[in-house]
């Protein structure tokens, strides 16, 4: 718990570092350019397609009629954009996470290491190729879990638990690997994951809940279309900062855990050498010795 809280406050302080703020703009520029470009070409067709599906649904005709009867017929125009936004949000979160992991996490881990862990040996147990494979595999598992768990989201408590838990697991898998790739060997990385899996998952889940805040901005963008172009970059920047904070939190925690594991290994007494075993005498010599004794 002490390590958990200590790394949290250190990550909060590091978010104010000029290098961290500067690094956050690179994924932001890429994400905003991609989002605005895709939105320009596909936003209206997507909303029209969803609106057409809602209006053609026999199950929802009664709902629309009831809304019009109580004077809330205009809500129908808001539902379609909200559905599109809620469908796009997981993609935005996923791409933001992978962008931060690719463009920010190594630099943030290096910043933490050069300021706090200057004597920590770099064993380079990870590589770029291994990181990409690890991230893609973890992403596929997270997407599979999201698809399988979708029917459970209709249960009110579970929709508040399952998505942040899945995103937290993915964040822990992707970012914790990257922050340890430079300094830990494969065996040390597995040992950190084994000893601290629960705390690392807790960091991922908490940052997953923090990542839900930009969703409110997405929803506001649907209600206030005039400000949507401004709110989209703001939401993406918040996603970027949340995952940057997550990278710093993981870096402080994981590198501290790695340092303690190495200190324990260095302080452990060396294992005694195996005791020599007596070599049995050949059969002929043993019989000769017995005969002389007799």
Provide structural commentary.
With 294 residues, the protein is mainly alpha-helical. It has one domain. 81% of the residues lie in helices and 0% in strands. The chain has 13 helices and no strands. It has helices at 2-14, 18-23, 25-56, 58-69, 75-103, 105-116, 128-149, 156-159, 162-181, 186-210, 213-223, 228-267, 283-293. Helix 3 runs antiparallel to helix 5, helix 5 (75-103) packs antiparallel against helix 11 and helix 9 (162-181) packs antiparallel against helix 10. The chain is elongated.
List keywords for this structure.
81% helix, elongated, mainly alpha, 294 residues
What spatial form do the alpha-carbon principal axes imply? elongated
**Helix-strand string:** HHHHHHHHHHHHH
Tally of distinct domains: 1
**Helix content range:** over 70%
Beta-strand content bin: under 5%
Which class best fits the helix and strand makeup? mainly alpha
Count all strands and give the number: 0
How many whole angstroms does the radius of gyration measure?
28 Å
Secondary structure tally, helices: 13
Provide the residue-averaged pLDDT.
Answer: 76
Write the layout of secondary structure elements.
Elements (H helix, E strand, L loop, with lengths): L1 H13 L3 H6 L1 H32 L1 H12 L5 H29 L1 H12 L11 H22 L6 H4 L2 H20 L4 H25 L2 H11 L4 H40 L15 H11 L1
């Amino acid at each position: 718990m002490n390590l958990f809280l200590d790394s949290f406050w250190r990550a909060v302080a590091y978010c104010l570092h000029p290098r961290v703020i500067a690094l956050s703009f690179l994924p932001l520029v890429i994400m905003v350019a991609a989002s605005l470009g895709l939105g320009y070409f596909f936003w209206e067709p997507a909303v029209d397609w969803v609106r057409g599906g809602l209006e053609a649904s026999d199950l929802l005709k009664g709902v629309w009629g009831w809304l019009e009867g109580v004077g809330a017929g205009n809500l129908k125009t808001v539902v379609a954009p909200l559905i599109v936004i809620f469908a796009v949000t997981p993609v935005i979160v996923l791409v933001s996470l992978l962008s931060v992991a690719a463009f920010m996490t190594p630099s943030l881990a290096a910043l933490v290491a050069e300021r706090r862990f200057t004597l920590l040996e770099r064993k380079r147990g990870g590589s770029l190729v291994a990181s990409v494979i690890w991230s893609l595999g973890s992403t596929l598992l997270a997407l599979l879990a999201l698809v399988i768990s979708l029917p459970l989201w209709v249960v009110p408590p579970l929709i508040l638990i399952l998505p942040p838990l899945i995103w937290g697991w993915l964040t822990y898998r992707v970012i914790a690997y990257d922050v340890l790739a430079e300094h830990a060997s494969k065996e040390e990385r597995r040992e950190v994951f084994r000893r601290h899996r629960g705390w690392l998952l807790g960091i991922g889940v908490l940052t997953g809940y923090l990542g839900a805040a930009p969703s409110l901005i997405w929803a506001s963008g649907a209600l206030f279309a005039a400000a949507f172009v401004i709110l989209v970059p703001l939401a993406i920047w918040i996603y970027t900062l949340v995952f940057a904070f997550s990278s710093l939190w993981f870096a402080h925690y994981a590198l501290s855990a790695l340092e303690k594991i190495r200190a324990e290994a260095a302080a452990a007494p060396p294992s005694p050498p195996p005791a020599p075993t007596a070599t049995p005498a050949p059969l002929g010599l043993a019989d000769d010795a017995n005969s002389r004794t007799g």
